[in-house]
Write a structure and sequence with these properties.
Strand content: 15-25%
Largest sheet: 4 strands, parallel
Number of strands: 4
Oligomer: single chain
CATH superfamily: Vaccinia Virus protein VP39
Helix content: 25-40%
Order of helices and strands: HHHEHEHEE
Number of domains: 1
Distance between the termini: 16 Å
Strand order of the largest sheet: 3-2-1-4
Radius of gyration: 14 Å
């Protein structure tokens, strides 16, 4: 089991070279995204919150299916690259903050169709998870 200090240090390490991360991190398989949309009963126009999108490997496929994604990325450089990758989707927003510090705008909690965490849930503070 990883100690808490090491977990906090490691979770921001991907931000050190956001472009390398973007070029090497695999994109979610289309079938996985299709299954998520189907099993969660999502439809184009639904609001999604995404935890730890990195540079958008799951965010882009969700946006391509019409989801309106608010993604919360702790790494400022990763968030910049994600914004570039999602520029053609005006309904998507990338916020550079930690999930633990993020506060959705009043009323948004009831409008979310899903909260998604692809390969990021283990980085969230265990008390919050």
């Amino acid at each position: 089991m990883i100690d808490e200090t090491k977990r906090r240090d490691l979770r921001v390490g991907f931000d050190e070279d956001a472009l390398a991360y973007d070029g090497t991190r695999p994109v979610c398989p289309a079938q996985l995204v299709d299954d998520l949309v189907s099993l969660a009963g999502l439809a184009a126009g639904d609001q999604i919150a995404e935890i730890g999108p990195g540079t958008g490997q799951a965010t882009v496929p969700l946006a391509e299916r019409g989801m309106l994604v608010t993604a919360v990325e702790i790494g400022a450089e990763l968030a910049l690259v994600a914004r570039r990758n999602l520029a053609r989707f005006p309904g998507c927003e990338i916020l550079a903050t930690s999930f633990e510090e993020w506060q959705p705008p009043d009323g948004d909690q009831g409008r979310l169709g899903a909260v998604v965490a692809c390969n990021s849930l283990h980085w969230i503070d265990p008390e919050v998870r």
